[in-house]
Amino acid sequence: MFLRIDGTPLHVRAEGSGPVCLLTGGLGSSWFDWDLVVPFLTPYRTVVRFDRPGYGLSAPEPATRPAPTVAGEAARILGVLDALGLRAPCTVAGHSLAGFHVEAFARLQPGRAAGLVLLDGSVEPAPRPLPAPGLRDLAARAVAGAATAVAVPYLFGPTVRRLVARASTVRREDLAPAPLVRHCYRTGRALRALLRENARYLDMAAELDELRRVAPLPSGLPVTVLAADDGCGSSRTRDWLAAQRGLATLLGGDFRSTAPAGHLMMFDRPDAVASAILDSG
Prior knowledge:
With 281 residues, the chain is an alpha/beta fold. The chain has eleven helices and eight strands. The protein has helices at 38-41, 70-83, 98-108, 133-149, 152-167, 178-185, 188-199, 201-214, 235-251, 265-268, 270-278; strands at residues 2-5, 8-16, 20-24, 46-50, 90-95, 113-119, 223-228, 254-258. The chain has an eight-stranded mixed β-sheet, sandwiched between helices. Helix 2 crosses helix 3 (98-108). It is globular and about 50 Å long.
């Protein structure tokens, strides 16, 4: 279905029954990246997933819209739930960059969060916003527009998506349906959304860092941090797991790891992802 949220038509999926959980993906993700997880959840939960503007089947945001912020993404999550008439507290699960979004939602909408799950969530210790946010957003739009004008997304978008997905799983394959990948990643709107979010990454990390000081998580909120362990035992893997454990400590939550799994853990270990969500609310 499509819902107009703050003026932008968003592609939204709602299925299953029972208490609500909302799933939102990381940088460049589409709704179908959760396809392997959803069947584990729908017997017990109403599962909501959506494409942020420009991704998947959602329309791009108008050029007049400001650059992404964590408060804005938290408001978008609230808008999706309200538009579906789902006003009871729900579990929110965010992968990678979307960990910022769902944590902000839990802090800014404490009465609407029943659980918080961060799946290999982004971690930035002591982040500082970069200068000239408006110019950076304008540059991201310009680069995306120029690339689209010479058909770069059409020619290379699906291939790049495939390569990134393969590098992000221990199985080294993209399990997303090829026709959907071609349909969604040949578009300039997906490239523009990705570049805009990437340009704002440190700004959003700094915004969330400040939010942690002024908006505490609800008392007693179940928080789970699930980290991907590729099983290699490398220093990079150890450092990543330590950062994820530190995030769990910072949020007063439970730390779990799942192996073998790459960053796109929804492909490698959908059962572990579902278990973390089911156990959190």
